[in-house]
Amino acid sequence: MAEGVYLLCALTSVTCAVLLLRGYSASKTRLLFWGSLCFIGLALNNVLLFIDLVMVPTVDLSLLRSAVALVAMMTLLFGLIWDAK
Fold this sequence. Notes:
By secondary structure, the protein is mainly α. The chain has helices spanning about 1-25, 30-55, 60-85.
């Protein structure tokens, strides 16, 4: 059951990223671009979560997962600060 939730979360993040990129290509609003980059990172985080807990449970990828999530959120924060100027 949990495996399906991990994959659905990754799919949802990819869908959000695609929709944000489509919105960015239509309106050229930079915040949509930064949001899509964040969701791409969050999708990668969810894929790593699936790999870590389901495919290779003997290997601890929690540090890598946390680093990817941090970079994704910092990307969005950078975009928010950059567009505030």
